[in-house]
């Protein structure tokens, strides 16, 4: 668990909380998470879910987030820096997969956001997710780049059918398998009462959006992260589970992440 907070300043501060769990079935945890401060009271947060089997999935997610971290830097003016960082991460993962035979075919999802008290920059590839948690609803900010996700958007599957579809885990887009990748990007106005939730599919595949909303109304901070992971484990924990939560606090007197 990593509760942390951005430096003080102004009337608001961003606090982040995160946890990753191996789950109850997988032998390795191939998920990774990233949380650190940037300028102007913002926070860089990201999750990555490695694919490729053996050690390659974990190596892909590790390398992708390390590259993202280095490339984003400290001062971010617009989403183009974030997209460029994801593109560079893709290139680095692809090149390593070509250089080392044991890592051939590796890849990872990557969902990254830079949250400021009044603005969110978002970049996304794969089927990890970003949610906006408001006081009244859960809003999914990303589209699943999976076979089932594409079919749902085309209207050939309902939302419930997509959640159960046998090809829901087959990705149509990921970081690393090819030398280039198309990145979804958004630049959104943010309200201080809203919370940003990033998660890998170890959570979203077994915990419905309405259950995420229900728990978000009951819990906050690390308590919400813990409750979400506990719920995924209670559903069998079939995959690695990673959750990152970012909240805007207007109580600048509280310098702790929890």
Structure report:
The protein has about 260 residues and is an alpha+beta fold. The chain has a single domain, classed as 4-Layer Sandwich (Phosphatase 2c, domain 1). It is built from seven helices and twelve strands. The strands form two sheets. The chain has a six-stranded antiparallel beta sheet with strand order 1-2-12-11-8-9. Helix 1 runs antiparallel to helix 2.
CATH class: Alpha Beta
- Intertermini distance: 11 Å
On the 0-100 scale, what is the average pLDDT?
Answer: 90
Quickly give the structural class: alpha+beta
Range of helix content: 25-40%
Tell me the Rg in angstroms. Answer: 17 Å
> What is the string of helix and strand elements?
EEEEHHEEEEEHHEEHHHE
- Please tell me the CATH architecture by its name: 4-Layer Sandwich
The major pleated sheet works out as: 6 strands, antiparallel
- Identify the overall geometry: globular
**CATH topological fold name:** Phosphatase 2c, domain 1
Number of domains: 1
Q: Count the strands?
A: 12
Strand order, sheet with most strands:
1-2-12-11-8-9
Instruction: Look at the structure and name the CATH superfamily.
Output: PPM-type phosphatase domain
